[in-house]
Design brief:
Blueprint: H1 2-15, E1 25-28, E2 33-34, E3 39-43, E4 47-50, E5 55-56, E6 61-65, E7 68-71, E8 76-77, E9 82-85, E10 88-91, E11 96-97, E12 102-104, E13 106-108, E14 116-118, E15 121-123, E16 128-129, E17 134-135, E18 140-141, E19 146-147, E20 152-153, E21 162-163
Parallel strand pairs: 1-4, 2-5, 3-6, 4-7, 5-8, 6-9, 7-10, 8-11, 9-12, 10-15, 11-16, 12-17, 15-18, 16-19, 17-20, 19-21
Antiparallel strand pairs: 13-14
């Protein structure tokens, strides 16, 4: 009896504690793990596919609005990751994404009536993306690349490279 109850609790936590809101097509592998506070949404003919053994922490939001989001095997999305797709976002296998990272495959003008401009985001295998990064439309990140924390990625990143942005801190006295 204890074994049965233990396995039921385990399955409840592991498989059914996912909060998935669907108005389109969503495929989540049964062996993927998601926090109860994560959201995976597909609307407006959008589609989301999540591969085997992928793990989403709390506060992760994945939304396909007319686009396609493919998340590979063994992908780890840390707290607060936001992925929004209107075109296509492909995340390869064994990718680690740090907390509070955002990925957008679209942008628009300053007026509400301006149309969205879209371009796909491709993230290849074995990529590590640090905390607080922003990945914008039309970017390809090559295999084994590392994106340093706080980076804004607007151009392609070749494979086997480390991408970081050097920022200068200037301190001045108020009397100067």
């Amino acid at each position: 009896m204890k074994r049965y109850i233990g396995s039921r609790i385990y399955n409840l936590i592991r498989f059914t504690a996912k909060r998935i809101i669907s108005s389109g097509k969503i495929r989540v592998n049964v062996k993927s793990i998601s926090s109860a506070k994560s959201k995976v949404c597909a609307g407006d003919n959008g589609r989301v596919t999540v591969g085997l053994m992928s793990h989403f922490e709390s506060g992760v939001a994945v939304k396909a609005s007319g686009g396609e989001i493919n998340i590979g095997k063994n992908v780890y999305l840390n707290r607060g990751v936001i992925i929004t797709g209107k075109d296509r976002i492909n995340i390869g296998n064994r990718v680690t994404v740090g907390p509070n990272t955002c990925m957008f495959d679209h942008d628009h003008g300053q007026k509400p009536e301006d149309a969205f401009v879209t371009a796909p985001i491709i993230i290849k295998d074995n990529v590590w993306i640090g905390a607080g990064c922003i990945i914008l439309k039309g970017v390809t990140i090559g295999e084994n690349a590392t994106i340093a924390a706080g980076s804004v990625v607007t151009k392609d990143v070749p494979g086997n490279t480390v991408m970081y942005q050097k920022r200068e801190t200037i301190l001045k006295s108020k009397g100067e």
